[in-house]
Design a protein that fits this description.
CATH architecture of the domain at 702-879: Orthogonal Bundle
Shape: elongated
Number of helices: 32
CATH topology of the domain at 702-879: Helix Hairpins
Bound molecules: adenosine-5'-triphosphate
Length: 896
């Protein structure tokens, strides 16, 4: 899905110069005009039915400003494609070539109704919305290498990873919760995209092992919440809203107008919590109404929930025996559609209890859950026989009825009564009303639907308990939602912002119409009346099995809540007023509340064909989705609203240090205003609220860049200081070394010198004594001296000589040892010295790099300054669509 080509709105190959006549049937404009409004438009009120010829259209573009600072105010009526084209280059446009395909091309010249164009390589980003086309096959664009590439920013092409990366980085940087809103029609790839986003977040925020458990929630939710539909073999029946598809404004209106019989809204919100260190600390899953009707009825070619088929095919023999499981062909709820299998899917293999193990659902609870699945299947086989001439019925006591009562743990008679009678209070009297066949079938099906949906909710609750964020929770989270979000005005109003300055197409009228109108619920809402009568709830609460009891108590407690729910005790006129609309509104309100505090990022999934085939691209279908999906709406809202919001405190704290004059002691509002002035932010580009500052798309980018640059300079300053200290140390070390070396050498010299002198003295002494002995002999003469005395003198002299020699040798040895020690010290000093040298070298490298990066940021800043100047004087709006770091437009993702 996220190939480069896939993320382009359309991949275009280079073709030779061609000659085309602008097609009157262009989906981007119905005549040769580029200003026809035949799709989602920037501003409908400017739609001009009197079309302009191509030449003048181009001419008029040349005078328009579509940059960040001008486009919000410009009122033009151009189609999405034209808009993109225009953003790329004003002389580019989309043309239909002879093979019927639409290609981006450069207009070389125009002659009358003919234009000479050159097809070119087209790259078009859809601003704050990532457009992801489902490839319907595995593509090598995911996994660790890609995660690393996006993490290190060595890749920045549009990708789900890029969106997830931005979300996680903005969460940490801004300390604001983020949301990734994934929308698209059934089969467009929302579920897969959500998984890919989760994969990235798990890789970046993983480490504790919880990321593995989080990823394991997907197979569980898919088994119990997904089913094969005509549009998607693995369609989430809790994570989608088929009604959006047909109506672009909002799902609220779409819901009303839908001709889809299911009339059920589905949704899923996965909230991933992070610890202070940016690691995942837990997850919270919120699912909205499950498509319950699928449990008891599904249309031709579709299937019920995967869990039923997986259980029947994959349950091990002991479990099979315990639940008295049969083949899928034997269950009436599954028989209706005559579709039992999915091409290429082995249901037995999909029966994977290790996922339940991974999220710590106990073996006992796993078996309880499978028992409920079997009970639902057997309920569908319960039949009725007419017992009187008023068409009243009673369930047939057969294998099905007995199995149900055994599986849920109730008496067969109790079940029989609950399915065929209804206790009512008329006045002060309690009466028992027998049910007709259709009423009994409704009651049976309502019980089956309730058991299944309660089971689903219970499973989600188990997952949430198991993966709840513990003490490490910081309150920061990224929510992944596969449904639309839209701008809320409440925040503007609360902050005193004049939101009349924003040109929104408000659908409040639709909402109002939708709410204050009284609907006749019979017929329209018939299928949504999952009314479970008190008798059935009482039956469940009387069951001996744990789960039915828990379901009953949940249903009773939710029925006591003031918000209208699916359950009404009376089952009378009041419950008829109960509408899906009310339920939907409550859910929507909660969702909006939750999302309002987040910075949203949008991914729009596109289905390239309806046959779920790889390599097949239906232009019309894609165009229709682009038109209906609201991509343009999101872009428009993000550009016309004030999507970037920061409290005065936060803004002052973050950017205050950039101020040239010292205003640190002033209040945050004054600091904020001073910053805005210093950076020449045009007054129409922001609004100052009571508590927050509101910025139009792209404005904050300038400040972010300045902040980063200044912080980089500060980092350079720090390195310089460190370098100076090291240099000083280095010099000191050299000096010390010099002195030590000199001292060592001097000492060595003195020692050797001393030893030599001593040796010389000893030898001289020896020689002198030898001479003096001879003289003595001569002097005393033989008669005067005594021979033995002479021997004594000589031997004592020799002994003295030896003693002195030994002493001199010992002295020498001692000196040598001292020398060794000194040499060792010298070596130590030398090795320390080389370490210092290495450190110095690396510091020099760092220093060099920092100098280079500073130089390059300086030149970028200079360039962007000169670009900004030239942008102000031209209509270039190219930058507004890119999410480039240096591009202010990246803030466009901050749409609420
Ligand atoms: N990125 C992808 N790579 C490969 N195949 C994909 C990708 N995205 C979607 N698909 C294929 O398309 C099918 C439908 O996708 P997915 O179930 O995510 O659609 P969806 O929009 O969630 O539909 P629904 O609203 O019905 O639940 C998937 O089962 C898968 O076969």
């Amino acid at each position: 899905m996220a190939t480069d080509g896939a993320h382009r709105l359309k991949s275009v190959k280079s073709l030779p110069v061609d000659r085309v006549v602008v097609d009157d049937d262009s989906p981007y404009g119905q005549s040769s005009s580029f200003l026809r409004n035949d799709g989602p438009s920037v501003d409908d009120e400017d739609a001009n039915p009197s079309v302009s010829p191509l030449g003048s259209a181009l001419g008029s573009w040349g005078n328009k400003r579509w940059g960040d600072t001008g486009s919000y105010a410009a009122k033009k009526c151009i189609s999405l494609w034209q808009w993109h084209t225009h953003v790329i280059q004003k002389h580019h446009s989309w043309f239909q070539s002879s093979d019927g395909n639409w290609e981006l091309a450069k207009i070389l010249s125009i002659s009358g109704t003919e234009s000479f164009i050159s097809y070119s390589e087209g790259k078009s980003k859809a601003g704050p919305v990532l457009v992801a086309i489902n490839p319907f096959k595995k593509i090598p664009l995911y996994g660790n290498d890609y995660i690393e590439a996006y993490k290190s920013k060595s890749k920045d092409s549009p990708h789900v990873y890029a969106i997830a990366d931005t979300a996680i980085k903005e969460m940490i940087r801004d300390e604001v919760n983020q949301s990734i809103v994934i929308s698209g029609e059934s089969g467009a790839g929302k579920t897969e995209t959500a998984k890919i986003a989760m994969q990235y977040l798990a890789a970046l925020g993983g480490g504790s092992g919880i990321e593995y458990e989080i990823l394991k929630t997907n197979p569980i939710l898919e088994a119990f919440g997904n089913a094969k539909t005509s549009r998607n073999n693995n369609s989430s029946r809790f994570g989608k809203n088929e009604m959006i598809l047909e109506h672009e404004y909002s799902f609220t209106t779409a819901f009303l107008c839908s001709d889809n019989n299911k009339n059920e809204y589905h949704g899923k919100l996965i909230e991933i919590h992070f610890s202070e260190t940016g690691k995942i600390s837990g997850v919270q899953i919120q699912t909205f109404l499950l498509e319950k009707s699928r449990v008891v009825q599904c249309t031709e070619g579709e299937r019920s929930y995967h869990s039923f088929y997986q259980l029947c095919a994959g349950a091990p023999p002991p479990l099979r025996e315990k639940l008295n499981l049969k083949s899928v062909h034997d269950y009436k709820y599954l028989q209706q559609s005559t579709c039992y299998s999915i091409n290429g899917v082995n249901d037995a293999e999909q029966f994977r209890i290790e996922s339940l193990d991974a999220v710590h659902v106990s073996k006992e609870n796993q078996e309880n859950a499978f028992t409920m699945l079997a009970a639902v299947l057997w309920l569908g086989n319960v039949t009725f026989s007419i017992v009187d001439n008023e068409n009243h019925v009673e369930p047939v006591i057969d294998e099905a009825l007995l199995n149900v009562s055994k599986l849920i743990g109730c008496e067969a008679d109790g079940l029989k009564l609950a399915l065929s009678t209804r206790k009512m209070k008329v006045g002060n009297e309690n009466i028992v009303q027998k049910l007709t066949l259709s009423q009994a079938i409704d009651t049976r099906d309502a019980l089956a639907k309730s058991i299944y949906s309660c089971l689903f909710d219970w499973l989600v609750e188990q997952i949430n308990k198991s993966l709840a964020a513990g003490k490490c929770r910081t309150g920061r989270s990224i929510s992944i939602l596969d449904i639309y979000g839209f701008e809320s005005f409440d925040e503007y109003i609360q902050d005193g912002i004049d939101w009349a300055k924003m040109e929104f197409e408000d659908n409040q009228d639709c909402l109002n119409l939708f709410e204050k109108v009284m609907y006749d619920t019979s017929g329209f809402l018939e299928k949504n009346r999952d009314l479970l009568h008190l008798d059935s709830i009482k039956l469940l609460s009387s069951c001996t099995c744990e789960l039915p009891q828990a379901f009953a108590s949940n249903m009773l407690s939710s029925s006591e809540k003031p918000v209208l729910g699916p359950l009404h005790k009376s089952g009378g006129a009041d419950s008829q007023k109960l509408s899906v609309v009310t339920k939907f509104k409550g859910q929507l309100f909660q969702l909006m509340q939750r999302l309002e505090s987040t910075t949203p990022h949008f991914i729009r999934c596109i289905k390239p064909n309806n046959s779920q085939s790889p390599g097949v691209y239906h232009q019309g279908l894609v165009l229709q989705q682009l038109r209906c999906c609201g991509v343009l709406e999101v872009v428009r809202i993000s550009r016309s609203g004030f999507p970037t919001r920061l409290s005065h405190q936060k803004f002052a704290r973050r950017y205050g240090f950039l101020l040239l004059e010292h205003v640190a002691l002033q209040d945050p509002l004054s600091v904020s205003v001073a910053i805005l002035h210093q950076f020449d932010i045009l007054p129409e580009m922001y609004q100052i609220g009571y508590t927050k500052l509101f910025f139009r798309t792209g404005q904050i980018g300038k400040l972010v860049d300045a902040r980063n640059r200044t912080l980089n300079v500060a980092r350079g300053e720090k390195s310089r200081k460190e370098f100076a200290i090291l240099l000083e140390r280095h010099r000191a070390a050299v000096l010390i070394q010099k002195h030590i070396k000199a001292k060592i050498h001097r000492k060595r010299f003195e020692d050797i010198h001393g030893a030599s002198i001593m040796l010389q003295a000893v030898i001289r002494d020896c020689l002198v004594r030898r001479c003096s002995g001879d003289i003595g002999l001569l002097q005393f003469g033989p008669g005067k001296g005594n021979q033995s005395d002479e021997v004594v003198v000589k031997s004592s002299y020799l002994a003295e000589l030896q003693r002195r020699i030994l002493k001199a040798e010992a002295g020498l040895k001692e000196k040598e040892e001292e020398n060794d020690i000194l040499l060792q010290r010298l070596q130590q000093y030398e090795s320390r010295w080389s370490q210092y040298e290495l450190k110095m070298k690396s510091m020099e490298d760092v220093w060099q790099k920092q100098m280079l990066s500073l130089q390059s940021s300086l030149s970028i800043a200079k360039k962007s300054l000169s670009l900004n100047d030239s942008e102000r004087n031209s209509d270039a709006s190219i930058n507004t669509l890119t999410n480039d770091e240096n591009n202010p437009a990246r803030d466009a993702t901050n749409v609420s």
